[in-house]
Amino acid sequence: MEILVSGGTGFIGTALIPALCDAGHRVTVLTRQSRGGRDGLRFVQSLAQLREQPVEAVVNLAGASMAGARWSRRYKRELVSSRLDTTGALIAFMREREQPPHTLLSASAVGYYGHQGDHFLAEEAAPVPGFASDLCRGWEQVAAQAEDLGVRTCYLRLGVVLDAGGGALVDMARPFRLGIANWMGRGDQWLSWIHRDDVVAAILFLLDQPCLHGAFNLTAPVPVTGREFCEAMRRRFRTLPPMSVPGPVLKLALGEMAEELLLSGQRVVPSALREAGFEFCYPELDQALDAIYPSH
């Protein structure tokens, strides 16, 4: 299959691209970085470079990190534009083609649901307002324009992606590596997580299932609270007794981002994926952390 990937040089993309190539797909990566390709893999800086190239499927992973900076007005605009503008450009690219791609897998996030306490949130759950929720809903609404072109569209509502060498776990693990065990605020907020290998496997699964469309929660079946995550990390690192990082301190340091990303969460379950027959390699956190920290 001829597959176009946007955001392919990020944390998920760097694992996805080799997996797509190993599966026999021909991959084009849309990126601002100039890179040399190889047989079956090409890097382009503009969609205009693809006018004569067939594209059968698009995987859209582009978007600035939600935890990349304090949510100033300027950074909020970057969060919005890096998602909506890039996705809009992909829709325009599809619309201009005589033969549009047959499939679009477009990233979203579990922030779509907003903060709903201890309620289990499957794909049909209604969202509640908030910056992250509004952003994800707007992102999906732009991607949904592909459906009007007859493109099978799947929305990948990603949880916190865990693996060695990058992503959120770098910051999450830092205090534990220094011997400090902590959780944010009360520690009862939910963390809907997923191992990066399962993200890659789920994307390959959805590409190969032409009957599947709509929203899919890319989260492990067993979400954990902040305190449970802390205890799981303490089983791998020698630390002082655990403690809380007070919510007011986080709000003072990080503002709105602390409230939305660190002190609140979503208890999300991957109902649609499991009903479709997808099997997780790492359904529970201890299994994922054993794979990430095999020597601990």
UniProtKB/TrEMBL annotation:
Domain NAD-dependent epimerase/dehydratase intervals = 3-210
What positions does the domain DUF1731 occupy? Answer: 245-292
Instruction: Identify the Pfam families for this entry.
Output: DUF1731, Epimerase
Q: Which InterPro entries match?
A: DUF1731, Epimerase_deHydtase, NAD(P)-bd_dom_sf, SDR39U1
Give the top-rank taxon of the lineage listed in the UniProt record for this protein: Bacteria
Q: Which family does it belong to?
A: Belongs to the NAD(P)-dependent epimerase/dehydratase family. SDR39U1 subfamily.
Q: What PANTHER family does the entry give? A: EPIMERASE FAMILY PROTEIN SDR39U1, SUGAR NUCLEOTIDE EPIMERASE RELATED
Q: What is this protein called?
A: TIGR01777 family oxidoreductase
Q: Which organism is it from?
A: Parahaliea mediterranea
